Amino acid sequence: MVKRKALISVLVLFLLAVLALPALAQQEKVDVYENQKLVKSVVFQIGLKEYFVNGQTPGVKMDVAPFIEQGRTFVPVRFLSNALGVTNEHIGWNEKARLVTLKQPGFPVVELVVGSRQLKSNGKVTNMDVSPLVRSGRTFLPARWVAEALGYQVEWDASLGLVVCWPKGEPKPDLSAVKEYLQKTNGEQGSWVVVNGYRVPNPDDKDLIFRKITEHRWDTKAGLDVDTLKTDQTELQLYIYPLNVEAFEQAREVLASKWGDELTNQVINYAMQKKTRNDPLPLKSFFATNGQEITVVGNYTDGVEITVWLPGQGPSKFR
Predict the structure, then answer these.
(1) Tens-digit pLDDT profile for residues 136-167
(2) Which DSSP string corresponds to 44-106?
(3) How would you list the strands of the sheet with 110-113, edge to edge?
(4) Which residues does residue 226 pair with via DSSP β-bridges, in sequence order?
(5) What's the whole-model pTM score?
(6) Span 263-316, pLDDT tens digits
(7) Could you read off the pLDDT of 65-75 as tens digits, one per residue?
(8) What is the DSSP letter of 197?
(9) Rounded Cα–Cα distance for residues 295 and 318 (Å)
């Protein structure tokens, strides 16, 4: 009789456990769903070392800024992953294979290799139009491709140079708080816009601009001449006169918005060697990872000229 009661008790406990499984599974599914939906929006701005999650301002600080290369926005792997809901412990890096793996529970498993245009999402291969790259020892990922692989919609706001991400199938988020914050911040430092992939001083900001020469060229009050007119050889030209720290820093921001800090610092540090008209600055070339040439020269002038040449163009072509 005792054995029979014990058997009945075991069976009851077993049935209760079985009946509880769907509820537990459902609860787990709800939790994952909620975790995925915690991130309602993510906003990056070209050239800004700060990103915004769910419209919260001020944003999350970064030690480097997103930049544009080959028409795509690149963000360091950790900041991009964290912003989209992938925590550090679920970001994998295989040094030998140069493989980045994002394995956040509830999200697709995303794999990318530095230098390769293939992206894997749960084993499915997608061919990207750009590949992850390394700069200054940091791995940068193409924001749009990674965000879409993790289940986000992505939109480009050219007016402020913004990359906006939000969960696929959800309404587009309200960005008014972020835009107001950026406009206020820009207003304190002078407003900037994105032209041809570069974040440049806004030619229509009367507090920042000394004169607007053409639709493609203007001078800042600090002394930076910006020429965004693309020719059959050049992509961008900057001329710094008079020679002063503020103008050099503006030029640094313009170049870093597309080429990143490492190359930009090399260019600007060389340009800043010219301090007066009597300091000759021979023509020197610097090269981006895609082979584009950037030249700096300041001979026999009061200022310094920085030219970004189109692929396959530049003085080195004729040397």
Answers:
(1) 678 999 999 999 999 999 998 877 788 999 99
(2) EETT-SEEEETT-SS-EE-SS--EEETTEEEEEHHHHHHHTT--GGGEEEETTTTEEEE--TT
(3) 91-94, 99-102, 110-113, 118-121, 124-127
(4) 218, 238
(5) 0.67
(6) 999 999 999 999 887 888 999 999 998 899 999 999 878 899 999 999 999 998
(7) 888 887 788 99
(8) T
(9) 14
